[in-house]
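[09:14] KT: can someone run the structure on this one? pasting the chain below
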Amino acid sequence: TQYDAMVEKCSLCEDNVVTDKCGVGEKGIDVLIKASIARKDGKHELFRGQKMIVLHASCRKKYTRP
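[09:31] RB: done, structure tokens below
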């Protein structure tokens, strides 16, 4: 539906971001890339070159804090 196209997906859990939305800029993306490399999950490939990504704030916290 048209509504689904407007709903953004969390780059970490890949679920829809309706509440708990967190926009991450270039500095934050650097932190996510470092966390991804430490986790060896390959997600840093998705983040590289992005200017802005949308996540759940709770996913971001869980992901970046060991």
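[09:33] KT: thanks! The helical segments are 2-6, 26-39, 44-47, 57-64.
[09:34] RB: yep, looked fine to me
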